[in-house]
Design brief:
The complex is a heterodimer of chains A (483) and B (121). With 483 residues, chain A is mainly alpha-helical. Chain A has helices at 12-26, 34-58, 77-103, 108-127, 131-149, 156-187, 192-202, 208-224, 233-240, 243-268, 274-296, 301-321, 325-351, 365-368, 370-384, 390-404, 408-434, 453-471, 473-477, and strands at 65-68, 73-76. Chain A has one domain. Chain A has 19 helices and 2 strands. A two-stranded antiparallel ribbon of chain A has the order 1-2. In chain A, a hairpin with a 4-residue loop joins strand 1 and strand 2. Chain A is globular, with a radius of gyration of 21 Å. Chain B is mainly alpha-helical and 121 residues long. Chain B has 2 domains: 1-35; 48-121, NADH:ubiquinone/plastoquinone oxidoreductase, chain 3 (Methane Monooxygenase Hydroxylase, Chain G, domain 1, Up-down Bundle), CATH 1.20.58. The chains are: A mainly alpha (483), B mainly alpha (121).
């Protein structure tokens, strides 16, 4: 197959983000105005999201997908759904960064360029139909993320987090690459469809090489979504990182990993899903259990949200276990709603600045800042999964899929752990609403606690989708199409 | 010699030319150059580093940055080789795509330059 320049048209959303990142890098040494960079990044992300949606709109039922770059890149409803979601997460994370970029002395152009490049890698991963392009996309994401985690160079905990993340991340990348090499050795191709037909011919269970390859690929991808037992990096990285970066990692990065995992499990294991579904069941059950239980003992808000994101990764995986398109659509719905409620919760942490980092900072928040407390209440209820918020719909669809599959034990575990996480999240609510503030409220402090407009906007969008997603889930998630 | 040998004659020629250029540089500078030996010049030389130092000795961080930049741009050149091999069959597309690749690389170079990564001071 000869390459042609029209292939580039498939990657317009990615090209927009890359061009903006390059433009920012070119001007990096001159740019000191953070708000201009924020505006530019938000515009690039929004345009990329719109273009991705327009491309999705041009796909017809007769030709549900476009393939380019010698069959390495695919554009279908599945990839475009995730691209829009990733661009949305990028937009909100950028808006949430406005204050911290100034207070933490982060160089604005580099910071935003890295965010844009990380998002580009995620989009590429969502569009890959070849294990090597998938690896390339995820690697672009993680390499940018290592730097983003350590971007506040003058903070020792940030450096520590970056090094931990880097060491564990490179280990996971190596595992993933090893899995690709073994899959190539066993089937003679890195193309997902060709591997799938080779799997169908020989059967995973009969070939130990393919079995090891599937385990290694699953392990590498499980690291990206921080599923237990590959979760150890997440709490440290989130705690040490600049809070907007933690929000971005907890949402966009996790979504990209889910997109990759979904495509791998649905394409490669289309004929014989047994082995991979067993691996996913184990990952999901452990993540839900460990994430929920360890979250109980956390006193740092970012660590608490990290463990909550680990548990949520487990819930999101539930949809992939059945290997059906209905299951994949359930996970896509989950990912969609999860992104906005998690960004909202992190947004409140950012809005509260220093006091938002520890649980003590939430004591008596309802008296001090009633509006912020009400928003946090909404996001926490949603993360718990209480109707009529989006979190309920998200948990409902994935658990329903597990029940349809007849895995009642797993469904019961998921619901039981939901109760445990309710304790975790509602403990914060109790602190906010039923405790007196630690220091007396003085009216003069009101002027200094103004939340910047950009953060207000991001919180409003997150809150809107959390509410609308809970009441009318159909209008927001009808886009979810399995590959 | 069979035709198998002739196929590799180009590599032999490459070795000879490379050897001649490198050897010529050393040879001509040794007979044409002015010699002013000093203690510093006679000491073993290793890329500006003191060749013998105890572990834990200090090293200028500047070397690290230069070395990283060198490796970065050096490795990128490797991508030009496979491209050059199939350049004709790629045609215009290959040229444009390599142009994009080098353009992205150039942005990195400009970034390093404008942030004074290439200045020694």
């Amino acid at each position: 197959m000869t390459p042609s320049l029209t292939d580039l048209a498939l990657l317009i959303p990615e090209l927009i983000l890359v061009s903006m990142a390059l433009a920012l890098l070119l001007g990096a040494s001159r740019i000191r105005n953070a708000s201009m960079v924020t505006t530019a990044t938000v515009i690039a992300a929004v345009v990329a999201a719109v273009v991705a949606a327009l491309i999705a709109g041009r796909l017809s039922p007769d030709s549900p997908s476009l393939v380019g770059f010698s069959g390495m890149i695919i554009v279908d409803g599945y990839s475009q759904f995730f691209k829009v979601l990733i661009a949305a997460a990028l937009t909100l994370a950028t808006l949430l960064s406005v204050q911290r970029v100034n207070t933490d002395h982060v160089r604005p152009a580099e910071y935003h360029a890295l965010l844009l490049l990380a998002a580009t890698g995620m989009m590429l991963a969502a569009s890959s139909t070849d294990l090597l392009t998938l690896y390339l996309g995820l690697e672009l994401t993680t390499l940018s993320s290592y730097v983003l985690v350590g971007i506040t160079v003058d903070k020792p905990e940030s450096n520590e987090a970056a090094i931990k993340y880097f060491l564990l991340g490179s280990f996971a990348s190596a595992l993933f690459l090893y899995g690709i090499a073994l899959a190539y050795g066993a089937t003679g191709s890195t193309d997902l469809d060709k591997i799938a037909s080779a799997f169908a011919a020989s059967g995973v269970t009969t070939d130990p090489l393919l079995l090891v390859a599937s385990v290694l690929i699953a392990a590498g991808l499980a690291f990206k979504i921080a599923a237990v037992p590959f979760h150890a990096w997440a709490p440290d990285a989130y705690e040490g990182a600049h809070t907007p970066v933690a929000a971005f990692l907890a949402t966009a990065s996790k979504v990209a990993g889910l997109a990759a995992l979904g495509r791998v499990s649905l394409v490669i294991f289309a004929s014989d899903n047994q082995v991979f579904s067993a691996i996913l069941t184990l990952l999901a059950a452990l993540s839900i259990l460990v994430g929920s239980i360890i979250a109980i003992s956390q006193t740092n808000m970012k660590r608490l949200l990290a463990y909550s994101s680990i548990a949520h990764a487990g819930y999101a995986l539930l949809g992939f276990i059945s290997g059906t398109s209905a299951g994949a659509e359930a996970t896509m719905t989950y990912a969609y709603l999860y992104v906005f409620m998690t960004l909202g919760a992190f947004g409140v942490v950012i809005a509260l600045e220093e006091s938002g980092e520890t649980l003590d900072g939430y004591q008596g928040l309802a008296t001090k800042r009633p509006k912020t407390a009400a928003l946090m209440l909404l996001f926490l209820l949603s993360l718990t999964g209480i109707p009529p918020t989006a979190g309920f719909v998200a948990k409902f669809v994935v658990i329903l899929d597990v029940v349809r599959e007849g895995q009642y034990v797993l469904a019961i575990l998921a619901v039981a752990c939901s109760v445990i996480t309710a304790f975790v999240y509602l403990r914060v609510v109790v602190l906010m609403y039923m405790k007196e503030p630690l220091e007396a409220v003085d009216d003069d402090s009101h002027s200094s606690t103004q939340i910047p407009l950009a953060i207000c906007l991001a919180l409003a969008v997150a809150a809107l989708i959390t509410v609308v997603g809970g009441i009318l889930p159909g209008i927001l998630t009808s886009w979810a199409v399995a590959p | 010699m069979s035709e198998y040998g002739i196929e590799y004659a180009g590599i032999v020629a490459c070795f000879i030319i490379a050897g001649a250029i490198a050897g010529g540089m050393v040879f001509f500078s040794s007979i044409l150059g002015k010699k002013t030996p000093s203690a510093v010049k006679s000491a073993p030389f290793e890329c500006g580093e003191t060749p013998f130092s105890l572990p834990g000795g200090k090293m200028a961080i500047k070397f690290y940055l230069t070395a990283i930049l060198f490796i970065l741009f050096d490795v990128e050149v490797i991508f030009l080789y496979p491209w050059a091999v199939i350049y004709r069959s790629l045609g215009m597309v290959g040229l444009v795509e390599m142009g994009i690749f080098l353009g992205i690389l150039l942005v990195g170079y400009v970034y390093a330059w404008s942030n004074k990564a290439l200045d020694w001071q």
